[in-house]
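FAQ

Q: What does a record look like?
A: Structure on top, sequence underneath. For example:
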């Protein structure tokens, strides 16, 4: 960790540890993950009591940034607020990005005896879902391969690049799933892929080539190679019905993502 990061963290803790509503302070983000550049911001998570969490939730202040603490130019501290019930829900059924947010995190201050045990539970990969995820991710890959071909036919540039992004996303999800690595969301996806022991040969280079020099032939070859990595073919899964359930009709089970509202 850079000296100026540590100095800024120490200043933050000195101020906030005396707040009676704060039960623990965690360091997360790029510094905790080991991805930080020298001018990186500082990500902290404040674990507060239930009443404070509900107060902040009602006031829409569960996230905030502080610009007057850091000891380096343009530095700031990005804060997220949670409570123990929220952390327990992540451990029970949280998404991969929700779990990954606590991977590598450092406990900077705590009044909680069981915090480390809970954090360990949060970052466990959901092994019981590996087989089903394999099918769902492969179906998304095939669906977006089809959309790419349609985009070329219709000369739809927007759909071309959306399809490429989705194919890269779900081929990457396939690789992470086979390695039992949590999906970190988009920002750190390629960084985490670098750590995967099992992946198609030259996978990261092929991702870059797909964006820079995409053609129908290259896209088809890329997708088939990823499917072969998990011993699948295009006939292994009924992708239209998986796509129907996961993308077109997901609103039946829960509120759709904001993209689809």
């Amino acid at each position: 960790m850079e000296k100026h990061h540590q100095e800024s963290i120490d200043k933050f803790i000195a101020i906030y540890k005396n707040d009676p509503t704060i039960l623990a302070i965690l360091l997360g983000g790029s510094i905790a993950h080991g991805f930080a550049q020298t001018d990186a911001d500082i990500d902290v998570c404040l674990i507060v009591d239930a009443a404070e969490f509900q107060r902040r939730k009602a006031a829409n202040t569960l996230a905030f940034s502080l610009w007057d603490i850091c000891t380096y130019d343009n530095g700031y501290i990005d804060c997220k607020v949670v409570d123990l019930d929220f952390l327990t829900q992540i451990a029970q059924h949280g998404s991969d990005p929700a779990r990954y947010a606590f991977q590598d995190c450092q406990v900077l201050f705590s009044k909680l005896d069981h915090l480390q045990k809970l954090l360990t539970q949060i970052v466990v990969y959901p092994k019981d879902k590996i087989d089903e995820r394999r099918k769902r991710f492969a179906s998304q890959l095939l669906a977006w391969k089809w959309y790419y071909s349609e985009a070329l036919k219709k000369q739809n540039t927007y759909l071309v690049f959306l399809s490429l992004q989705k194919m890269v996303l779900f081929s990457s999800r396939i690789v992470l799933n086979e390695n039992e690595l949590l999906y970190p969301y988009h920002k750190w996806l390629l960084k985490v892929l670098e750590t995967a022991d099992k992946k198609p040969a030259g996978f990261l280079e092929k991702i870059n080539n797909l964006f820079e020099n995409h053609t129908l032939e290259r896209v088809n070859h890329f997708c088939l190679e990823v499917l072969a990595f998990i011993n699948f073919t295009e006939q292994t899964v009924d992708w239209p019905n998986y796509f129907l359930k996961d993308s077109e009709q997901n609103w039946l089970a829960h509120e759709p993502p904001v993209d689809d509202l």
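Q: Is there anything notable about this one?
A: The CA atoms of residues 32 and 104 lie 6 Å apart.
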